[in-house]
Amino acid sequence: MVRLRAELLTSASFVAGWALLTWGIAELLVWQVWPLSAGLFFLSLGGWKLLWTLATEGLYALTRTSRGGER
Predict the structure, then answer these.
(1) Is residue 30 within 8 Å of 39, Cβ to Cβ?
(2) Most CB within 10 Å of its CB: which of 6, 30, 54, 65?
């Protein structure tokens, strides 16, 4: 657990920052910001590079093998 302390603190600060930012926006606008923000948060967990690859090249780019026979 001690070895993972830095990673856990980084993850906790990321989630806390997201929650506080969403809370602030929701206070300024409306509570319906929460589902939108949660959706963006979960998409971010998957990674924006993965989303960009899916949007530009499709699933084929993720499943094809390289010329060396390795994936």
Answers:
(1) no
(2) 54
pTM of the complete model beyond 0.70: no
Q: Mapping DSSP to helix (H, G, I), strand (E, B) and coil, where does residue 69 land?
A: coil
What's at 21, amino acid-wise?
L
Task: Name every residue whose Cβ is closer than 8 Å to that of residue 18 and which is 6 or more positions away in sequence.
Answer: 37, 41
In this structure, what token pair is assigned to residue 66? 């390289």
pLDDT at 71: 52
CB 63 within 8 A of CB 71: no
> What DSSP designation does 40 have?
H
HSE, CB side, 13 Å, CA atoms: give it for residue 15: 8
Amino acid identity of 50?
L
